[in-house]
Amino acid sequence: MATMSTDNPSQEKFQRWYKKNRQSRNEARRRRYEEDKAFRLAERERVRAYKEKKAPKGPRNTFRDLDGKDVIVVRIGKAAEIAGTTPDTLRHYESEGLVPIPTWDDEPQRLYTKAQCKLMKKMVDLRRKTRAASTHPTVQKLITEIFDHWNDA
Description:
Strand content: 5-15%
Low-confidence stretches: none
Mean pLDDT: 77
């Protein structure tokens, strides 16, 4: 815990006490760990169990959708790579309304399915080939197709 200068003396007193107490607890724990084999084994088991509980089950990029199917998702960097563009371009398309807002995870990160990446690739390819604005009829048709198939993807 970093020491912060405050105008409150009781807060500073608490911070000093906490730091001192934390150091003495750590020293006592370290001493016991070195001396007591049963404690050492119990600590290792506790840490192992914590890591297992914390570790995600299965691949990190697989989620279950509402229908119960496993869906592989990618974050914005990989999605941009699949679509053949940059993450900034995907964010721009999202802000301009050219692609729907994606799902977000806890971190928070944008998550795209592989099918959604393919839809975005169509948009990127069309914009590159024709250099068409978003008001162009072909682009408008593609935008409606993307919005129609986004949640199916």
